[in-house]
Amino acid sequence: MLRLLFTFGRMIKFSHTIFALPFALMGGWLAAAGPPPARVVGWIVVAMVGARSAAMGMNRLADRALDARNPRTRNRELVTGQISPAATRALIVAAIALFELASWRLNRLCLALSPVALAVLLGYSYTKRFTSLAHAVLGLALGLAPLGAWIATTGTVEPRILPLSLGVLLWVTGFDTIYALQDIAFDRAAGLHSLPARFGVTPALWIARACHAGAFVCFATVERLFHLGALYDLGLLVAGSLMVYEHTLVRGGRLVRIERAFFTLNGYISVSLFGFTLLDLAR
Known about the structure:
By secondary structure, this protein is mostly helical. The chain has a single domain (2-281), classed as UbiA prenyltransferase (Tetracycline Repressor, domain 2), CATH 1.10.357. It has helices spanning 2-11, 21-32, 38-62, 64-69, 77-80, 85-106, 108-123, 134-154, 162-179, 184-190, 195-199, 201-225, 230-249, 258-281. Helix 3 (38-62) runs antiparallel to helix 6 (85-106).
């Protein structure tokens, strides 16, 4: 059973939760101007685990045939038979149920909006079949995290949280565009859509740079809207420097460094911004 759980965790890349969870918690902390009630934090984490597990399970199920043809992904657990399609469907249903339970336990607005969030999360897996803006749809899926946490904490929607969500959307769009460079040849051969497949390596990298520049502006706007101070500014400087460094790693389309740029640096970016936000609010 333990081995099966680890296999499921590898399949859905559970460790990548670090990209979205810090921003969700950041949304909750900003909403409460400090630590939200422990109960709210707990259900936010449960909702994030359920939502992301459902989304990744759907992604692996939808892409099973494509992953089997792609040299980079042909060893994924669903392709090799380590996890069956039936087990993956059961995982998706259980994860959706967990997400809905958390939404119900948080407040009525969270529950009412949960189908919208699920539509984005589950629908993303099919977008690369018809649009090169699939990266932005993934960005929207993760960008909903701070907005959702704000609603979970306050029971309302307030416009000043939107720049944080937009910043996450642009940040994810940028790094997912970089990540898609690995599959440019396969995507073109399979008729799939991505910004690198449509425009080529150099234009795609410029689009990613523009997205990250926009993300930095959005994150800087958060500082003004919430009257944060020097500690947040330090976190913003760290995040901005890491985004710049990420682009130096893949300059000229150096694919060998993409894994490092994708996982390690982006994990540091989300954790840094949340950590320094938490410290600033605790002043």
